[in-house]
Write a structure and sequence with these properties.
There is one protein chain. The chain is built from four helices and two strands. It has a two-stranded antiparallel sheet with strand order 1-2. The protein starts with a strand and ends with a helix. Pfam families: DUF2568 (PF10823). It comes from Rhodococcus kronopolitis.
């Protein structure tokens, strides 16, 4: 079970989407992005105030960007592949920031895993859209 599937409708209630392994991994990647940005933001400054600002501001900007253009419920959600391009760019920035402040290996592993997971999600979504048009 690696794909999200629609559950059957029961008593007129809208079905819930079942979450597969890939969707779970994508959610964990999103959370890890926020955690890495918070850790890197805290590592940027030496003062406690600066650490708090960095730990809140960096993930805040990423979360706002995600909420506007990538969240499934957003009215301005980008279509694929443009959404994938923005996701990969956001992951690349996160990887560079994490690499500089938390270690190169951390940034590299984060980028490889997240780019791979979201590229596969994009591929599946585009495949499903093509299949629906036929």
């Amino acid at each position: 079970m690696t794909e999200a599937r629609e559950a059957p409708e029961v008593d007129g209630v809208a079905p819930l989407t079942r979450v597969g392994v890939l969707e779970l991994m994508s959610f964990l990647c999103e959370l890890s992005m926020l955690v890495l940005l918070a850790l890197a933001g805290a590592a940027v400054a030496e003062s406690v105030f600066g650490q708090i600002v960095g730990a809140v501001a960096l993930p805040g900007v990423a979360a706002a960007t995600w909420a506007v253009w990538m969240a499934p419920t957003s009215s301005r959600r980008l279509p694929n592949p443009r959404r994938l391009y923005l996701q990969v760019a956001l992951f690349a920035v996160t990887a560079v920031v994490a690499g500089v402040f938390l270690g190169h290996l951390v940034g590299l592993v984060f980028f490889v895993v997240t780019a791979g997971v979201f590229a596969e999600l994009c591929r599946r979504e585009m495949r499903d859209e093509r299949a629906q048009r036929v």
